[in-house]
Amino acid sequence: MAAFARSAPCWVDAQLPDLEAGKRFYGELFGWTFRAGEGPYADACSGGKLVAALAAKQDGRMPTAWGIYFATDDIVATVARIREAGGQVITEPVRAGRAGALAQVADPGGAVFGLWQAGDREGFQKQNEPGSFCWTEVHTREKDRVDAFYEQVFGFQATDLSPDTEQDTDADDSAAAGSAPAYRMWSPAGTEPGPDTAVCGRSVITDAFPAEMPSHFLSYFAVEDCNSAAGNAVRLGGRISAPPFDMPYGRIAVLQDDQGAVFAVLQPPVSEKGAE
User: Bias category Acidic residues: which stretches (predicted)?
Assistant: First the structure.
């Protein structure tokens, strides 16, 4: 049985100009250790378990960014659905040795993501714990097209949340009331949609952001202390894009590493941690 539900996020990696600098930054920030992967690729481990990878960029035109991969049990069929739904195929499915097969694609708004069909490597061996992946969301200006795309391609079940009220809302009512755009959470097909089953989300890029900001995925890593992680990122040469702030699901900060790759950190609410 696969470790990941079809369409669930299963892996993240960062494409960086300087791999060794990336290992130093994330090794100190998250306590990761590294082992050699395929080619210019370093697997990141937390407590001896795979959590991510860093890769040396092979083309300077590629963005310095974190990439997210979604699990599929039939990568060829998923790529076909992406084309049918108005997405773009950047890299056709290719084998990564015995580890699995991958493809790079983009949604109708231009946000890039990966697909992963597992072979010997399923993906994360640890998540939702400090030093590991815990969430991802697509930021887009093409809300309606993008929502339809992911729900058609992956069969996601949607739950709309108002960032102001923390309550489930109807997106049209929220917009009519002039409130902030609804935040949409997606749960895998076959599950009861809601925060407890959600695996990723969608946020809207409003006019408050620069016009040149492209659609993109933002991935989150769990930390024990959000304020401390933000301070350490700066000490290590990174930057704070959004200072720590509180949300219903924890304390969040958006950061950049010392090479410009953007990511977020999330400190779960005290009640959540205390219940574990």
Answer: 163-173
What is the C-alpha separation between 104 and 116, in angstroms, rounded?
A: 9
Quick check: pTM over 0.70?
A: yes
Range of the domain at 223: 9-275
Question: Which residues, including other chains, have CB under 8 Å from residue 94's CB and lie 6 or more apart?
Answer: 101, 102, 103
Give me 30's structure tokens. 């998250």
Between CA 31 and CA 100 the distance in angstroms is: 27
Residue 102 lies in a domain: yes
Residue 33 corresponds to which amino acid?
Answer: T
Q: Are strands 65-71 and 9-16 parallel, antiparallel or unpaired?
A: antiparallel
Would you call 13 helix, strand, or coil by DSSP? strand
Tell me what pLDDT residue 175 has. 36
Bridging pattern class, strands 200-204 and 262-267: unpaired
**Residue 20: CB atoms within 10 Å:** 12
Token pair for 249: 């699901």
1 occurs within a structural domain: no
| Distance between CA atoms of residues 10 and 203, nearest Å | 20
- Provide the residue count of the chain: 276
Which of these, 131, 128, 124, 150, lies nearest to 215 by C-alpha position? 150
What gap in Å lies between CA 89 and CA 83, rounded to an integer?
A: 7
Domain annotation covers residue 187: yes
Look at residue 107 and tell me if it is in a domain.
yes
Block means of pLDDT (10 residues each) for the chain, 276 residues, are 74 96 98 83 95 92 94 97 98 94 97 96 96 97 96 96 48 39 90 94 89 93 98 98 94 98 94 46
DSSP-based three-state secondary structure for 25: helix
CA neighbor of 204 nearest in space, from 137, 110, 139: 139
Identify any residues that bridge with 49 across adjacent strands, giving them in sequence order: 46
144 Cβ contact list (under 8 Å, min separation 6): none
CATH (domain of 81): 3.10.180.10
